[in-house]
TrEMBL record:
It comes from the Bacteria. Residues 144-229 form the M23ase beta-sheet core domain. This is M23 family metallopeptidase. It holds the Pfam family Peptidase_M23.
Length: 236
């Protein structure tokens, strides 16, 4: 059998020669192990530097992507904020216009209600033409009119016919309820032209005056108490 050959490793040595100013030469010997250790350290350092560079590059790339994404998000939010601002301005204008419309409507309704209330109050003249007028000197508060033929007895305000009854002194008595506790009373000997429960407007004809029914007794009752009719006639 052939004997095993032993392999010899080549050994290297690094020699540094340095000459001083006086001409003396010094030699520095660096062994192979030291060189290998230095090379290993250099390799590790190089790998570390390269790895750090790669990781830093990746981190910088990710940071740039994050900055771009945040910039896009900021731009989108800015556009959305501007759109919401415009929408808010539009809604504010609409609310203001709606408020003005509601206010105008409320004013119109108040004006209508006021006219209705004014129309319901018995402040009008109870005859369609002129007539002599005198206040009753005794008994219940009442104004007595002496009208001419062809004149009509009319309502002094809008309301509902509360009653049409016989009257001992004037023949017929019509009571009109105007609401708010106020009634007007018409006493005349003519033929009544309305019926109980009928809703009528201001100036509606109740009687037609002829030669036999020229007298009209006119009264106002408020909260179940007869008051002076002149208080309302003066307002009319």
């Amino acid at each position: 059998m052939k004997g095993k050959r032993s392999r010899k490793r080549n050994k290297y040595m690094f020699i540094v020669v340095k000459e001083n100013s006086n001409g003396a030469v010094k030699k520095y010997t660096v062994s192979q192990k030291v060189m290998e250790a230095a090379a290993a350290i250099l390799l590790v350092f190089t790998v570390g530097v390269v790895s750090k560079f790669v990781l830093d590059s990746i981190a910088i790339g990710n940071a740039r992507k994050e900055i771009i994404n945040q910039t896009i998000t900021i731009n989108d939010l800015t556009d959305e904020n501007e759109a919401l601002g415009a929408l808010n301005s539009t809604l504010t204008d609409k609310i203001a216009a709606l408020g003005e419309t509601v206010s105008n409507k409320a004013e119109a309704e108040d004006a209508i209600s006021q006219k209705i209330m004014e129309g319901a109050l018995p402040t009008g003249y109870p005859l369609s033409g002129s007539a002599d007028m005198e206040e009753a000197l005794s008994g219940e508060p009442m104004v007595v009119f002496s009208a001419v033929n062809g004149t009509n007895v009319v309502t002094s305000g809008t309301g509902t016919v509360e009653s049409v009854d016989a009257d001992e002194l004037y023949g017929t008595r019509i009571v009109i309820d105007h609401g708010n506790g106020c009634q007007s009373i018409y006493r005349n000997d003519g033929t009544p032209l309305v019926k109980e429960g009928q809703t009528i407007g201001k100036g509606y004809i109740l009687f037609t005056v002829g030669k036999d029914n020229q007298k009209l007794g006119y009264q106002i009752r408020q909260n179940n108490q007869l008051i002076d009719p002149m208080l309302f006639l003066n307002n009319g």
